[in-house]
Amino acid sequence: MAITDWPEFERPREKLLQKGAASLSDAELLAIFLRTGVTGQSAVDLARGLLTRFGNLTKLFSASEKDFCGMHGMGQAKFVQLQAVLEMSQRALKEEMQRGDALNSPGAVRDYLQLLLGGRQQEVFLVLFLDTQHRVIASEELFHGTLGQTSVYPREVVKRALAHNAAAVILAHNHPSGVAEPSQSDQHLTAALKQALGLVDVRVLDHFVVAAGQVLSFAEKGLI
User: Fold this and answer.
1) Which of 184, 131, 196, 188 is nearest to 158 (CA)?
2) pLDDT per position as a tens digit, 33-87
3) 15, containing H or E segment
C-alpha cells in the first residue's frame, strides 16, 4: 500500500508536521528523506530494508557508495543526498561547539563524535583542539588503523596542538567492535598523551570512546 493510502495521521510527513520530528521512528524519518518508494514497496518499506541491512542510522551514514547503491531502489543520487545531510549535521554541531564552551555543550560534542565516528569500520583517533575559552578551533583525524601507544604518536598530537595554538584538547576514538568500554591500552595511551601535552601547557579535558549508539567519557568515569 502506498503511503498516500495510509490514514493521514500515520503518514510520516503529516505526523512530523503535527507532532514534530522527534515523534517519528528512524524508518519514518528515513522514508521522508527517500520521498518515494518503488513498485510494491513504500518509502517506509525501503527505509526499513535499509535499516535491517545496515543495522542502524549510524552505520547507514557510514555505508560505502557501493554498498548503499547495491540496495534495491537506491542509487548514486540518493547516496549523494545522504552524504550532504550527514555533512550538514556535522557542520551544524561543530558550529554549536565553536560558539561556546565545549564542556557546557556535552550533547553537541557527543552527537558530533557519534555522527563522525560511530559507524566507521576501522579505528580512528580524532582530536578537538580548543582555545582558552574551550571553544573548538579545529577537529582533526590524526591516526587510522589499529590504535595503541605504538601507532598514536604523542609528539604528533603535541605538534598539531602547538600549530593551532590550542589551550586544551578533547581526545576521541572509536571501537568498531561496538563496545565503548575503554581498554587498558586506551587508558595507558590517555596517560601518555596527557603527560606529553602537559609539558607544553595543553590540558586534556576528556577522552571519548565511541561505538555504535554509545559514547563513553573518560572524565565522567573518573579516568582523566
Assistant:
1) 196
2) 998 888 888 888 999 999 999 988 888 888 899 999 999 889 999 999 999 988 8
3) helix 12-19
